[in-house]
Amino acid sequence: METIVAPITPLVTSAVIILRVSGEKAFDCVDNLILPGGRHLERGNIKFRHVYTGSFIDSDGSVLDEVVFYFFKSPASYTGENVLEISFHGNPQIVRKALSVIYEKGIRAAEPGEFTKRAFLNGKLDLTQAESVASLIESKTDKGIYYSFRQLKGSLSKKVIDIKNSLVDISSVIEAYVDFPEDDLSDHDVDFVTQKLSDVLDDISKLIESYKKHRYQREGLKIVIVGKPNVGKSSLLNSLLEEERAIVSEIPGTTRDFIEEVISIKGIPVRLMDTAGLRGDGDVIESRGIEKARDKIEDADIVLVVIDLSNEIDAEDRKILEMTENKNRIVLGNKDDLANDVSGSAKSLIELSVSAKYRTNFKLLEDMIYSRVCSDDSELYAGEIITTERHVALLKNLYDILISVKDKIISEHLDLISIDMGMALDIVSEFTGEKYTEEILDNIFEKFCLGK
Ligand code: GDP
Ligand code: ZN
């Protein structure tokens, strides 16, 4: 395999830029590394995992930079190959020159994800672990990082191996009969296989469920703020953002367009959207905005219905309450600081009183939002989380096959079951990458950033 090189830090002006060289020719670079005192480092004398300081020289011997470098010997490296990492001062110009010196040795630029791909091909990581490297880097929330890290440590792979072991157990029972077509499955074996299948199907559907439940971890939780004009929607959005970005105005109904901002509530990315004031009737200019607002309400995970506590609840408020009745909503009384004693029946509708202006009860509001989507979080935290489209597609496939196996147990089509079980085991192998195609690998690794 060719030797490859790439910056593993961004190639921008910064404190340091680190180049990683991986492959058989990695240690050829010692020719360009001079130790303090002008000594050359001999290839045979390299101390691995030892931090050296020295100079990086170009082809005609002039010093390009003072560098820090260290070597890893195959297979004890990230990629499983010989690896050299050189840390330069963070000037991209210096590093580009160094790269061209390295290219002259027949070492080529690495493609995005190529280091991790090699780690996979050399058995340092299985496929789910390799995929978690990308999600770990991309995760925007504490939880995303937590799950990716667990996956990197192999927790999902372990779960998949458990599933595989159960499938192997089932298969061995079936295979024992396939060779003796005159025998029927014993009651004991039918029970065993059926029970195992149910357990596995249960595990798989939990995994598929975890993907759905964590949709908002990937895509963000969609929250729409609705209410009639002037109740304080934009102020609420602004205060939640803790900066003034939506347009706040004294004139009712000036938020024509939808303003969307992303905030983080307890580690969940939240897409917060302000809508034009909803009005039941009349205003032509606003009506288009209202139609759009209806769509946004349909689409939202949570709707914040804002009511102005400084005024009596009126027909317009009631209309909006009606419109959102079947949604996962939180009815907020805003302008708590100006609140008159709001009359009885209306008050009972309000779930939380806040002041967008003075940011009172925001902590409670965030708790409330969080608990609306994460009530069963502790259970999910303990279980495995499926985070990629590829995994969920494989699991759905597996689920369907095993359901049909379950049906066939009843009708005792053992030869067909044997074929199904073979397919099921193939899917499991694709999961961790025991079986893979170039296409699968390309799909996974092309999404990586350069240097990973
Ligand atoms: P929107 O039309 O629903 O988006 O309402 P705005 O956010 O533009 O607010 C309308 C007016 O109410 C502005 O003058 C805000 O300063 C004021 N306002 C909003 N929230 C509060 C609050 O909690 N207390 C007080 N006293 N005024 C508020
Ligand atoms: Zn507004």
Total helices: the number is 16
Give the integer mean of the pLDDT values: 86
**Structural class given helices, strands, pairing?**
alpha/beta
Count of the separate structural domains? 3
Q: In which order are the strands of the major sheet placed?
A: 3-4-5-6-2-1-7
How big is the Rg? Answer: 30 Å
The total count of strands amounts to 13
Helix content: 40-55%
CATH architecture of the largest domain: 3-Layer(aba) Sandwich
- Provide the list of bound ligands, each named once: guanosine-5'-diphosphate, zinc ion
Reading the helices and strands in chain order gives EEEEEEHEHHHHHHEHEEHEHEHEHHHHH
Q: So what's the overall shape?
A: flat
Q: Please give the alpha-carbon distance between the first and last residues.
A: 18 Å
What is the assigned CATH homologous superfamily of the largest domain? P-loop containing nucleotide triphosphate hydrolases
Specify the CATH class of the largest domain.
Alpha Beta
Estimate the strand proportion.
15-25%
Low-pLDDT stretches: 243-247
Task: Give the topology.
Blueprint: E1 4-7, E2 16-22, E3 33-34, E4 52-57, E5 63-72, E6 83-89, H1 92-103, E7 108-109, H2 114-121, H3 127-138, H4 142-152, H5 155-178, H6 187-213, H7 215-219, E8 221-226, H8 233-241, E9 259-265, E10 268-274, H9 284-299, E11 302-308, H10 315-323, E12 329-334, H11 344-347, E13 352-353, H12 362-373, H13 377-382, H14 389-411, H15 414-432, H16 438-445
Parallel strand pairs: 1-7, 8-10, 8-11, 11-12, 12-13
Antiparallel strand pairs: 1-2, 2-6, 3-4, 4-5, 5-6, 9-10
Helix pairs in contact: 3-4, 5-6, 5-15, 6-14, 14-15
Residues 233-234, 255, 274 line the site of zinc ion.
